[in-house]
Specification:
With 864 residues, this protein is mainly α. The chain is 53% helix and 5% strand. A 4-stranded mixed β-sheet has the order 9-10-12-11, with helices on one face. The chain has a two-stranded antiparallel sheet with strand order 1-2. A two-stranded parallel ribbon has the order 3-4. A hairpin with a 4-residue loop joins β11 (828-830) and β12. α1 (3-16) packs across α2 (45-57). One of its GO terms (biological process) is protein polyubiquitination.
């Protein structure tokens, strides 16, 4: 250890632990009864570090007993850690049954930056650094100036001096003696990290460019103690704070190192998740005691450091995962930008074609609205300051450059999470279910949008990868409802002061026998030409029928229209017999752009209004809705037979099989695709494809072009208007930033898993029923004996959809109300409230009969 650093180390030990001599007279030693400091100073290690620097510069007295540390160093003769010297230490301790030497050795290593950073070095760096250390100046008053620089190690590359394999095997051995050294490691790291945090304030650049600096974080992450409750609230928090307060350039290098060297990333995630869980528990205990507490989970001290560290690990997981080629990514980005431009231009063309009269009327309306807002401002001028704070934009209204879902580190790494098919590990390991259960997402969101960006220290909104799908959906719904509320409030104010009445809801009036036609007219007129209408709450009326849409009529509208428009009669889609999934019909009529746009809008409106559609598409559709292209890998779930055939083509070995690819497969670059009516459509993958044989040399090109044809080119004419309709609704939302493709699938179509035990456990009863009522017991007995098809009909009858929402059937909260005594009337339902009105039938046989009739004849508001 350099002389200056030894002095610093001794002063730290003297102030924090003392020399151990109860008769000590040194006023600068904690063991002395004349200790000159208020001992509360020891609670702030930054103050301790500052005082240590001052004492060393003034040559304050050092206790002789403290020199025992240096004597131990000389006795043990260990300056860094290797697997060999650790084995020797353990062997020595086992022989003498005295573990003090191991404890002292770990204290020497883990409390000293230089000793720890020069442990586990690669062979080709050891000699270089050894030479540098011998020639380095040691006259400095502090160890801050002792840094190792090597031209091979920079912030711009991913090189490090650490030998991962040696480090991991040594740490594995060290974990076997956890009980003997846990408290020593805790005390030593506390000392080391506090000193490091203080020094980083003035010498961050020197530290970050030190050739060995990143070794420290990788070594500490391998320690099992980070998940130990003894470490979680001080050492772990300090460690995560130091790591996430490095420069963006340094954090980016750390992420790249983790992804490149395939570290034990899942173990690191476990450390951080344990940290987050324990801080969540502490928050629960505190707010549970303070019954009137309004504190959010995001206000828990230390939570920010945990989430920031988890984000580093998430990015490393992405970089270590799989994404499409750079060429495909570039094309996708350009294509999505083009689509967005076309969307904006279409809206602009509509604005440009407005008549002068309409423009003048709009100006008058804007003036009236401005006047009305002025009136409102004047009327609230006496409000308290807190009620007049100007809120920031909702997340969905923020430009990409200011999006809460992007950050400087993500931009530095050029990371777009949805461009990755999978990570090194499953994305679910980054979701802390316990914290998500305790997270009050509505309050977090409102707290987020009510503050200027500059004043927000921490919010869970910044970490979509951490949020459960349920919380993401809740966040999207809150966003949607906030926008709907703003629309309704604006219209309310407008209607007070204007003779032109505006509708506060997006109202659709349809006839059951002209459903598609009426829906097209409504959506084109109010939606495409006036896209702001789509931000309002959907309100459906069936012509000639009574009923106020509280959600049930909207659900029925979506159910009926999807049944019709996806039917074979329209031939817009076809069903894959193997997967039972829908796909675009490549030979659909050329005049169906309006219908495809309508379906895209329905997808968006269903998400926006939290309605599940009774449809099933392969996963690639939802990737395409995020701006992705289909590739060979996507065929596994969309066209499994074709995928298996192409995979066998790629795996074919001419030498082993004794024949060529041409002879074995007899393929050319002209292929046939089957359409909705079973006809074969011929396509040339290349000019003159019918004359180009598929060979061993060009088979990869064939697979790529054929996959592109099946999933992209053959259906581009159908998919483009569909995608455009979807973007008309979702363009301004946070959908693409919040959700993965598989989550959008659940948003649109729900889950196919039916667990009616969940439904029963969460059910509520009204009107005299309870879970112990005989009719209720009969009801659940009947329901549990239903087939899956009958169960789906029951769900559609009571909720308007036969799919399970994300989170399971328990989230439906079925309400069963007593609807009078025994009768011959059928059960009825209010789908908007998930309410079943069940008469008190006299027998289980009668209940089964009446319920079966009701669910088999559920269409139409008159019955429901």
């Amino acid at each position: 250890m350099p002389a200056a650093e030894k002095i610093i180390h001794r002063y730290f030990h003297q102030l924090i632990s003392g020399c151990g001599n109860p008769q000590c007279s040194n006023i600068y030693c904690r063991s002395s009864s004349s200790f000159k400091y208020d001992k509360t100073i020891l609670e702030d290690r930054n103050q301790v570090a500052a005082e240590v620097i001052r004492l060393s510069s003034e040559y304050a007295p050092l206790c002789d007993d403290v020199n025992l540390i240096e004597e131990n160093e000389q006795k043990i003769k260990i300056n860094n850690l290797t697997e060999n010297n650790l084995q020797e230490l353990i062997s020595q301790c086992e022989k003498t049954n005295d573990w003090n030497i191991l404890e002292k050795s770990m204290e020497i290593i883990f409390s000293n930056r230089f000793n720890l950073l020069t442990s586990f070095l690669k062979v080709d760096f050891t000699e270089n650094i050894s030479n540098k250390s011998e020639s380095s100046p040691t006259a400095s008053a502090t160890p801050k100036s002792f840094f190792i620089h090597d031209p091979r190690i920079t912030l711009d590359n991913d090189e490090i001096t650490l030998d991962f394999d040696v480090m991991k095997s040594t740490m594995k051995l060290l974990r076997s003696y956890e009980d003997q050294i846990s408290s020593t490691i805790h005390k030593s790291l506390d000392l080391l990290l506090n000193q490091l945090q203080y020094e980083l304030k003035s010498k961050r650049n020197e530290f970050e460019t030190d050739a060995n600096f990143f070794n420290l974080f990788l070594i500490i992450f391998e320690l099992p103690y980070l998940s130990d409750p003894l470490f979680l609230f001080d050492v772990a928090r300090l460690f995560y704070s130091i790591l996430t307060n490095l420069s963006i350039k340094a954090q980016a290098k750390f992420v790249r190192i983790l992804s490149k060297y395939k570290t034990n990333l899942d173990a690191y995630v476990v450390h951080v998740q344990q940290y987050i869980t324990m801080h969540t528990l502490r928050w629960c205990d505190r707010v549970g005691i303070e019954t009137n507490s309004e504190e959010l989970l995001s206000s828990e001290p230390g939570m920010k450091e945990g989430l920031n560290t988890l984000r580093l690990l998430f990015y490393a997981n992405l970089l270590g995962g799989q994404r499409d080629s750079s060429e495909i990514i570039d094309i996708e980005r350009k294509n999505y930008e083009k689509t967005e431009r076309e969307l904006v231009e279409r809206r602009q063309r509509h604005n440009d074609t407005d008549s002068d009269t309409e423009q003048q009327q709009q100006q008058r309306n804007e003036q009236q609205q401005s006047d009305s807002e002025n009136v409102l401002v004047a009327s609230t001028s006496s409000a308290t300051p807190a009620t007049r704070i100007k809120t920031r934009k909702a997340t969905s209204e923020i430009e990409d450059t200011d999006s809460p879902y992007d950050n400087a580190l993500q931009i530095k790494l050029d990371l777009k999470p949805n461009e990755y098919r999978r990570g090194q590990y499953a994305f679910d390991i980054f979701i802390n279910e316990y914290a998500n259960e305790k997270l009050e997402i509505k309050k977090e969101y409102l707290n987020f949008i009510q503050q200027p960006t500059s004043s927000i220290e921490f919010s869970f909104i910044y970490y979509p990868f951490f949020l459960s799908t349920i919380n993401k959906i809740a966040l999207l719904n809150i966003e949607s409802k906030a926008r709907m509320y703003l629309q309704r409030r604006s219209i309310f104010v407008h209607n007070i002061f204007s003779s032109v009445r505006l509708n506060p809801v997006f109202k659709i009036n349809v006839r059951r026998d002209h459903l598609i036609e009426d829906a097209l007219i409504s959506l084109e007129y109010q939606g495409i030409e006036q896209p702001e209408e789509l931000k309002k709450q959907l309100f459906v009326e069936f012509e000639g029928e009574q009923g106020h849409d509280e959600g049930g009529l909207s659900k029925e509208f979506f159910q009926l229209i999807t049944e019709q428009i996806f039917s074979p009669e329209y031939a817009m889609f076809m069903t894959n017999e193997e997967t039972r999934c829908l796909w675009f019909n490549p030979s659909a009529a050329e005049d169906l752009d309006r219908e495809y746009t309508l379906i895209g809008m329905l997808f968006g409106l269903a998400i926006y209004n939290s309605i599940i559609l009774d449809i099933q598409f392969p996963p690639i559709l939802y990737r395409k809705l995020l701006g992705k292209f289909g590739t060979f890998e996507d065929l596994a779930t969309s066209h499994p037979t074709s995928y298996k055939s192409l995979k066998s083509l790629l795996a074919f070995n001419e030498k082993d099989e004794g024949m060529t690819v041409e002879d074995a497969f007899s393929l050319t670059f002209q292929v046939a695709i089957t359409d909705a009516i079973g006809s074969q459509l011929l396509f040339d993958l290349k000019d003159g494809g019918d004359t180009i044989s598929v060979t061993n040399a060009n088979r990869e090109e064939f697979v790529q072009l054929y996959s592109d044809l099946l999933l992209n080119k053959s259906i581009q004419r159908q998919f483009d208007p569909f995608f455009h309709g979807f973007l008309l609704v979702t363009h301004d939302s946070s959908l693409r930033k919040l959700f993965r493709a598989d989550e959008i699938d659940l948003l649109v179509a729900g889950s196919h898993v039916l667990d009616f035990n969940q439904l029963a456990l969460a059910a509520e009863y009204d009107g005299g029923y309870s879970k112990d009522s005989p009719t209720i017991k009969n009801f659940w007995t009947v329901l549990m004996t239903f087939t899956d098809e009958q169960k789906r009909k029951f769900l559609r009858f009571t909720t308007g959809s036969d799919r399970t929402p994300i989170g399971g059937l328990a989230r439906l909260k079925l309400i069963i109300s007593r609807n009078g005594p025994d009768t011959d009337r059928l059960p009825t339902a209010h789908t908007c409230f998930n309410a079943l009105l069940l008469p008190d039938y006299s027998s289980i046989e009668k209940l089964q009969e009446k319920l079966s009739i009701a669910i088999d004849n559920a269409e139409g508001f008159g019955l429901r």
